[in-house]
Amino acid sequence: MRAKAKYRKVVQPLESGFSLIELLIVVAIILIIAAIAIPSLLRSRIAANQAAAVENVRTISTASVVYNTTWGNGYPPALSSMGGTGTTATCDQANLLDPILSTAPYTKSGYVFAYTGQTAVTKPGGCGSPGFLDYLVTAVPKNENITGIQSFCSAEPGVIHFDITGNTAASETACDALPSLQ
Fold first, then answer.
1. 107-108 vs 160-163, strand pairing mode
2. What is the pLDDT of residue 12?
3. CA angle at residue 108 from 103 to 110, to 5 degrees?
4. Complete DSSP assignment for 35-104
5. Which helix (H) or strand (E) segment is 173 a member of?
6. Which of 14, 132, 172, 182 shows a CA-CA span of 20 to 30 A to 90?
7. pLDDT per residue as tens digits for the range 49-68
């Protein structure tokens, strides 16, 4: 009798993984999705920065009015005098603003803030610097078309104005000539 020979089946291993073409197609799809999503993300970030800038200009204007009524020194002499971290408020450190806004370089949410007084008053005793009869607050994008597009300003009446070109309002009159936010 003849013995049956046992044959082994040779199984070739299945190739696993992606081919180069499949990988390139996936990368191309991801790049297309990113090209669609990134501009929307940047526009959303700019809109958020601009909304924050408007709110910060409003906060500075409100703090200026509170300073004026509290200390009898007119409107504040500088942004730094509206800040402070101590427990006792003074006309030099009124504790009315967030330290980020009241400390140089006065930058928050992609905008640079500036505060200038227009007409000095006689300073009362106890105050280091005289305040002003009127003021101008400005907010300009730190990197135009990246952190923001529009600039904002507010003067003594507290109305917030905007400039679509992103330029800084040079004076209270220039600020008042700009369109106001509704």
1. unpaired
2. 67
3. 140
4. HHHHHHHHHHHHHHHHHHHHHHHHHHHHHHHHHHHHHSSSB-SSGGGG---SSS--SSS---S-HHHHST
5. helix 172-177
6. 172
7. 999 999 999 999 999 999 99
Residue 180 has pLDDT above 90, yes or no: yes
* Gyration radius of the chain over CA positions: 30
- The CA distances from residue 170 to 56, 93, 124, in Å, are 19, 27, 29
Contacts of 28 (CB under 8 A, 6+ apart): none
Euclidean distance between CA atoms 175 and 170, whole angstroms: 7
Strand pairing class (111-117; 151-155): unpaired
Identity of the residue numbered 175: C
Per the DSSP assignment, residues forming a β-bridge with 148 are 144
